[in-house]
Amino acid sequence: MTKKEDDNNKESVTKKLKKELKENIYTIPNILTFGRLVAAPCIGYLILQHEYDTALGLFALAGFTDLLDGHIARKYNMKTLLGTIIDPLADKVLMTVMTITLTMQGILPIPLATIILGRDTGLVLSAFYYRYISLPEPKTIARYFDGSIPSAEVKPTQISKVNTALQLLLMGFSLTSLNMGIPSDEVLLALQWLVGGTTVWSGASYLFSKNAVRILKQ
């Protein structure tokens, strides 16, 4: 390859990057979502330290920010493609941390924890895969983790939304059962079976849905 051809290739790549789709990721909804990511390990630590009241309060605050960031994004047109990825990711991290710590405390059965963690692990691995195949050239590590370069949009299935809500309810009730003794063991067991069923169902819905992931054309 001649020097002129090499210069032309570099110029072509530069022009392509300049025209590449970019978005502002520093929005209030995204900041609230990152806050939930930070809160997750704190909640897990509090559970392991048997600080159930504080853990419940922080968990309730995290749930409130989950509702708030969605409301702000819709009302003030602050939706971002990054938000469609990190919002469910924050939920998954919170669920993972709480599932592990509550199982360690003996409140969640191991089979249910295995189902929840197995599904979420599969979704995370799939997200990494779709990010790679959808990222425009050049595929570098820096560009791969650059959230301002959107390449794919994740659309949660309806059953997945229901499952997330039920999982959050289960985690909340698990905490209240530890520090307040409510709900009853029978109610908690029924909710555990329900969450187990919806978790399997929601995982399968991603496998068979054609609209769960949309790869963007730059």
Layout of secondary structure:
Elements: H1 3-19, H2 28-48, H3 52-75, H4 81-104, H5 110-134, H6 141-144, E1 152-154, H7 158-179, H8 185-208, E2 213-215
Antiparallel strand pairs: 1-2
Helix pairs in contact: 2-3, 2-4, 3-7, 4-5, 4-7, 5-8, 7-8
Radius of gyration (Å): 21 Å
* Percentage of residues in DSSP E strands: under 5%
> Topology as H/E string?
HHHHHHEHHE
Secondary structure: helix percent: over 70%
Number of helices: 8
Helix/sheet category: mainly alpha
**Parts with pLDDT < 50 across at least 5 consecutive residues:** 13-18
User: Which strand order do you get reading across the main beta sheet?
Assistant: 1-2
The overall pLDDT average reads: 81
Shape: globular
Distance between the termini: 28 Å
Biggest β-sheet: count, sense, barrel? 2 strands, antiparallel
How would you describe the oligomerization state of the chains in this entry?
single chain
According to DSSP, the number of beta strands is 2
